[in-house]
Every structure is written in structure tokens, then in C-alpha cells.
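Exercise 7.
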Amino acid sequence: MFITISRQTGSRGKEIAELLAEKMELSLITRDMIMSQWMPEVASKHELHMLSESPGFFLTPSSQGVSFAQHLESRLRAFIDEQPAVVFGLGAQIIFAGHPEALHVKIVASLEVRTERIMQTHCLEKRDAERFLELTDRKHKRYIATLYGKDWADPLLYHVTLNTDHLGIEEAASLLCFMAQNRQNFIPTLEEPQENKSKAVVFKNPSEEEFAQILSMHNIEWEYEPRTFPIKWDTEGNITLAFKPDFYLPRFDTYIELTTMEQKYVSDKKKKVRLLKKLYPGTNISIVFKNDFYSLVNRFGIRGSDE
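Solution. The predicted structure, written as C-alpha cells, is:
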């Protein structure tokens, strides 16, 4: 388990990272550390100066034949393979994106609060503090954009974002410590559990089961209620009406909705289908009556043993 921390200047992210590393008894990897210990392995004094001044220089080939950015990434990965750590900045949220043992954190605060803090810590007038923040935020964004082509502010790069307007350093560090210690029990997986994949399909009515049997008999692959389409929302954006077609035929990219002959239900489903097609252009969907089961199969041109 390791933590990457990105922060806005004036958000107290550095102080939180330092306290978190202390609480968890982890090494703290910072820019100052890598510039003094790692980069001198491959960079001359002049190159170190350029690296401190220009993010683009990290893309320059080093004496080892790899770019300085690649060297940094390699050292970071090797370090994390050996031991957990708190990595402060350095684009680690991108380098280790998708790593199952990583917790990516962004520390933020409002511009008003950050300005006040910078005025106090740097003894600056408000206008100068605002300019200071503008420049440092721009540098953070430029570093990530130049090296990785990502938007530093993209919330999807992080598991959690903490707003320190009303959150103290101790409280924030304790919260992250708790999250990190419990993360291993809650690591999400994109894979559906195998036992769920093998569960038998439970149909809502006999007609659906009969239709599935007909499709299988004619070797037509099908999925039962694989997707729900939202088709109406209220003024706050909450879904008020959704449509879940009964079947999807992957080979024909077509959804099938079964219905009875009762006009009330037919009209209701036709309205939903019209809305669905309007909101999701290109979606193929058909309403099918039980009497049309075999004619539909024949329309697809698939006949059992011929497949």
C-alpha cells in the first residue's frame, strides 16, 4: 500500500504528506529528495539546473540513454516495489495510475483561503499572493501536461480529494492514514466475480424464457436485460424513467423488447422506444409479440443446424 499526494499551493498538502508519512512510518519521496539523490546519478550540474527550471527538459535523453523522466519513473517504480511510501507530487498519480495498491490523493482549498495562507506564510500583499498562486498552479499543470499529456486538475486521476478550507492538518492526515490502512479490504475490481458469471438467468416471465430457448435453439447468442437506458430526468438531473430491453443480440447489435397484445402495454413501450431512439441515436431495438418469435428468428436468417 502506498499513497501519492498532489496538492494546490497553499492547501497544506506538503504538511499533510509529511505528517502522514510520519504517522504511517513511511518514507516520503519529494522533488527535493529526487533532485538531490536520484537525478545526480544521470544528470550533470548544468542538467540539474535545467531540470529545476523546465519541465520539458525531463524529456531530454540522459547519459544513460533514457530520458530523465524515464529514469525518474524507473527509480520510483523500483522504490515502491521494495517498500511502501508517500510520494509527494512528481506526477506519481499518473505513473502509478491503475496500480492496485495505490491511493491517489489530491489536496485542495479555495482560492480565498489559499491566498490568505500565502499572505501569512510569505508575508505578501494580497495582490502578490494571488499572483504567486497563479504562477505556481500554472507550473504544476504545465509539468503534468508536458510529461504526461494529462490535465493535472482532472478529478478522475485521484481516488479522493480533500478540501482543507475547514480541515486541519492532523485531521486530514489521520483520515488518509485510516483510508490507507483499510484500502486493501476495499480494492475495487473491474472483473465481475466468477461466481456471478456462472449464475443461471432468472427470467421474469415464461414468455422471456421461451424466447431465450428459441434463440438458443437457432444458435443465436443472447444476453438478458444487459443494459438500462435512462430516458427521462427531473430538473435536478435525477432519473425518473428508464427502459431496460429484455434481450440483446450481440451478433446483430439489436435489442429486443417482448410484449403482450394488450394495447395499453404496447403503446407505453412504443413511447419508451421512441424516446430511447431519440436520446441514443443508432441504437437498434425492436418490439416483438410472442406470435412473432419465429418470424423474427427467420428474419435474422439463422436456422439451427445451418449455423
